[in-house]
TrEMBL record:
Residues 23-94 form the Microbial-type PARG catalytic domain. It comes from Neocucurbitaria cava. This is Microbial-type PARG catalytic domain-containing protein. InterPro entries: CHP02452, Macro_dom-like, PARG_cat_microbial.
Amino acid sequence: MEGDPVNYALGWYQNAVNSDPNCRRIPVVNVANEKRAGGDWESGLMAPEECFARRSNLVHALTMPWNAQLGRDENFYPIPQRGGIFSPEVFVFRGGPDQDYATFNEIASLPVISVAPVRRPKLDETGTTYSFAQEKELMMEKMRAVLRIASYCGHRNLVLGAFGLGPIFRNPAAEVARIWRRLLFEEEEFHGAFQDVVFAIDSSMVGAPAKGCLSDLETFKREFDPSKIFPISASRWHYSSSEE
């Protein structure tokens, strides 16, 4: 769906808690900078993590500056190549850039899974396929880490944004969508692990598609078309029709 993943996760939880006061908050995936919490959030860069950092305490949640006062020497950076950071509660107190970061009337919170995508992999001449199998495999491992963290922490619902897409990371949308589908529907490790997974893609963060190409959102819609995930063979369809 089109939209901001943080807003979607907060709204999803708010709707769910009205019918089930005991439901868990919905985690969102932070498209993280591998070296610096919040990336270049202070510079005004318009990218998913940076915009998220300006509207929340994300940077503090990732760096935990209070540890120094407690005598703890903990530092999660750089984020491991095949790992991530789970923040059980990040407080959100402003709207996004489309709302000029207007202050919320009430502070909201949600769990956050921070994983750094592959940054600017080498692509083929079409710009739609990884040139090197090693970079594609590493990207898959990072995406697998997202799902493992969510599953390990007991979250059956999850909001995924434009992980690794757009001008900052430049991973090919079709390949990324295909990997997500493979992990969610074909890998035994994640069978039954999740109830609902939503891809919320903010087009303002990924940029316009090249001329004649599908947008990233349309690419994901095509890859996750139910007929593609649960195909029905033509022979079976004709057989069923003849029995009616």
